[in-house]
């Protein structure tokens, strides 16, 4: 078995390759590859298994409860309808969901967990794909929970105020809000992959969501061409209609084109960089 | 088995790893020795696919690391024990590893036992771990997949003497079972007591490699006389190459008998004459890396 590997054996061989008979290796079964579902499961667990991760997720519920409470307390009776609750909750969601998305990617670099993650799963694109899917899933689930809290608030608020409960958000409107928030979340995710730094990703997201719309509308008020055609280039501009009307086919096309420019292209560049980058 | 073939890694104009080739055999502990910044960690990162080589290749068990179906089951890797999420508990980190590579949950407790981390310690967050506890956790994570190959970067870092002893025994057993162990260190003594084969790297290049015995054999003879200048002259006269060793001793590149005969012929009484093992390897290390050493050769 043990092929005289004792340090006392004076075997002299040609350097640097030793030519001792190799020791008999334990017989081993061929190992099965890691299934994608397992990568998904582990990545999901990683979103919850630290205090910061847990509270980030919990903040979806906490912030929707706070926003709902504030609406019950401060909204005038006439406005106590589901739409008020939904839009009050929408504001914190549009901040927290992209941050969750950004941190799910950048954590691998800022916390250096990528060293272990990418050693166990060398295919980095698989890990990123799992995180992307989970981001979408968490976003949709988070918004469903948030709107559930809002619905509860609508019931409670209306009964406290003694008014009739108004359900004025249709399934289509709800779906469009979910889509709009998912786009914001994926923008955060894309920035995370592209920048691989938590701080840069979050700053980048706020530049995208707070600074760029201002720049774009200033441009639109001076340049008629941009006012007419900006929605083909500006993802923010193309996303706005999701919050109120049913989209025309042109608006859907604009959404598709801008999503391609803002989400797909940078993602490809980011992925290319992630695959080549040194993890250390 | 790990095979490194003409591996080169450049960062811009700087060559961190320069055309290195070596093999770490199954059933043996291979020590990867070199001073700070020699390129050990860089080479190891290339081996596990975390860094793309500029040219050359590294294979583990005959395949590129990234081509192994489930690398954690075949190769245990510890590159940097501090590269963990500070907010996770030790147990959680092992649980994530076990899940990813598909090991049963019971394996986590087994590994904690193996590296002597208590239940209570395993429940603490890694931010509150001591250096040695992190290192133990890292070793546990490397072993959790019951691998055939171990790639460990400075595994003894931060371990207490008992821990170092324990690790040495563990690696010995692992290799005796037919496993391959590659461990790096910048401490010669550490490598000397564990390794069967030693690869010495300096400034990105391999400066020596072979079995420990070979390297010890080339260390030659240590000889000392009251008049070391005369002794050096006499030995050189006899065609023996000598190097100063320590303050007044000489290391002669020849065997005991030849050195003794030369000194006797010259009528120089020697005060010490022995095989230059142990200390010799240290000198080799300092000499081999002389050009690359930050402090130059110690006197
Ligand atoms: N990304 C990088 N860009 C530029 N230089 C780098 C980069 N990564 C490593 N180096 C350089 O490569 C050299 C080798 O570094 P490496 O970490 O491999 O050394 P080492 O042998 O592990 O040293 P130590 O014993 O101190 O751990 C160093 O000079 C280091 O500065
Ligand atoms: Mg190093």
Descriptive overview:
- The complex is a heterodimer of chains A (280) and B (299).
- With 280 residues, chain A is an all-alpha fold.
- Chain A contains ten helices and no strands.
- In chain A, α3 crosses α7 (198-222).
- Chain A has one domain.
- Chain A is globular, with a radius of gyration of 26 Å.
- Mean pLDDT of chain A is 88; it is low at 1-23.
- Chain B is an alpha/beta fold.
- In chain B, strands 5-6-7-3-8-9 form a six-stranded mixed sheet, with helices on both faces. In chain B, strands 11-12-10-13 form a four-stranded antiparallel sheet, covered by helices on one side. A three-stranded antiparallel sheet of chain B has the order 2-1-4, with helices on one face.
- In chain B, β11 (242-245) and β12 (249-252) form a beta hairpin.
- The mean pLDDT of chain B is 90.
- Chains A and B meet through α1, α2 and α4 of A and β2, α2, α3, β9 and α9 of B.
- Residues 11, 14, 16, 34, 36-42, 186 of chain B line the site of adenosine-5'-triphosphate.
List keywords for this structure.
heterodimer, A: 280 residues, mainly alpha, 10 helices, 0% strand, globular, B: 299 residues, alpha/beta, Rossmann fold, Alpha-Beta Plaits, 2 domains, 6-stranded mixed β-sheet, 4-stranded antiparallel β-sheet, 13 strands, 36% helix, elongated, binds adenosine-5'-triphosphate, binds magnesium ion
CATH architectural group of the largest domain in chain B: 3-Layer(aba) Sandwich
Q: Output the number of helix runs of chain A.
A: 10
Helix content of chain A: over 70%
Tally of domains of chain A? 1
Largest sheet of chain B: 6 strands, mixed
Secondary structure: elements and pairs:
The complex is a heterodimer of chains A (280) and B (299).
Chain A: H1 36-48, H2 51-74, H3 82-110, H4 114-120, H5 124-161, H6 171-195, H7 198-222, H8 224-229, H9 235-239, H10 249-276
Helix pairs in contact in A: 1-5, 2-3, 2-5, 3-5, 3-6, 3-7, 5-6, 6-7, 6-10
Chain B: E1 2-11, E2 14-24, E3 29-33, H1 40-47, E4 55-60, H2 71-74, E5 75-78, H3 90-101, H4 106-114, H5 119-122, H6 131-143, E6 149-153, H7 161-176, E7 180-185, H8 188-194, E8 197-202, E9 205-211, H9 212-217, E10 221-225, H10 228-237, E11 242-245, E12 249-252, H11 256-265, E13 270-275, H12 279-288
Parallel strand pairs in B: 3-7, 3-8, 5-6, 6-7
Antiparallel strand pairs in B: 1-2, 1-4, 8-9, 10-12, 10-13, 11-12
Helix pairs in contact in B: 3-4, 3-6, 4-6
The complex binds adenosine-5'-triphosphate and magnesium ion.
Magnesium ion (MG) binds at residues 40-41, 153 of chain B.
